[in-house]
Amino acid sequence: MNQTILSITASVLFLFSITSIPAYATESGPERKRKSAVQRHLDICMSCHWVGALDAPRFGSKKEWAPRIAKGIETLYEHAIHGFNSMPPKGTCEVCSEEDVKELVDYIVKKSQ
Length: 113
Fold this sequence. Notes:
Blueprint: H1 2-19, H2 29-34, H3 37-49, H4 62-69, H5 73-82, H6 98-111
Helix pairs in contact: 3-6, 5-6
């Protein structure tokens, strides 16, 4: 029963993340540059990586991230940017640049080692 509730919750969070357009998506110029990609977009990543939705490695879990980190940072970038298994391209962040995604990957990896 708990697994079912977790799956439903994760699915709802995932759907919410891909259907909402955050207010910062319209920021441009100096406003956008003042905030890091982590400040602007981490909530999108956390919609799956906080609860482990769709078998995503959970934020901060050394055990879950270790085999992925062992494949190398370039592989992690590639998977995050282009998608891999249940990880959608750019984690559904339509406004993220490739550099934004790399910054987010670096942050999540740093906090999960």
